[in-house]
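Continuing the batch. This is chain 6 of the set; chains 1 through 5 are on the previous pages. Same settings as before, nothing changed between runs. Recording input and output for traceability.
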Amino acid sequence: MPDTIIQALQETVQFIKKIQPHPPEIGIVLGSGLGNLSEGIEVEIEIPYKDIPHFPVSTVEGHHGGLLFGKYAGRRIVAMAGRFHYYEGYTAEQVAFPIRVMKFLGIHTLLLSNAAGGMNPAFRVGDLMILTDHISFFTPNPLVGRNFEALGPRFPDMSEPYSHELIRKAKEIGKRLGIALHEGVYAGVTGPTFETRAEYRFLHLAGGDAVGMSTVQEVIAARHMGLRVFALSVITDLGIREEDNVITHEEVLEAARQAEPKLTLLFQELIAAL
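Output for chain 6:
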């Protein structure tokens, strides 16, 4: 194992560049049940995670496990078909590692998707929520430990974790295409259990509109490195409700698949507008 994360990043990037020499402009992370967005990518090469030095391997159903390189909406992109989660047993640094690799490969913008539980009473299953902010107190911060200036400052500002410019563009696109878009705060938790009724109420009172088990560690690492970030949640279940509150992963995946065409169209148009 390399002595530092910088050495690991250099080794990983060198390996990838030998296979795919064209630098990507935009990075995409596909969440649970949202992998079909990759069908619109003109894939030039796919590298399985298991073949990439120092890369974790996705273990969750609905996450395929490969790094896709090619063109999407006329732009050079790299897409993660399946992400990594803290609840899989990876460290926060390992969860963030692929985002750092994408930055070192050349991206300037990161687009993320996720499946999330709705806590805002106005939300319904299948809705899309633009992340305007997040709460990450409940997950380990990936920047804990030695800081390397090559990655970013010791104390990065997080007053604008999600680009106001990209949010504005997405809202304009949504309005033009007739896609209803909510805006809200994403509460990141460790999982893998779905939240209790009391936890849903607490997170909503704390300011959360949706809750999920991913994204925040990736965003922290991305902003640490100066990347522009846009993120979108598919509301796949409702945590704030009076009736039966049992939620299964299968239901989450199915709800994500139903909403995916809207998300795919929005991402496609947003990438074309960048």
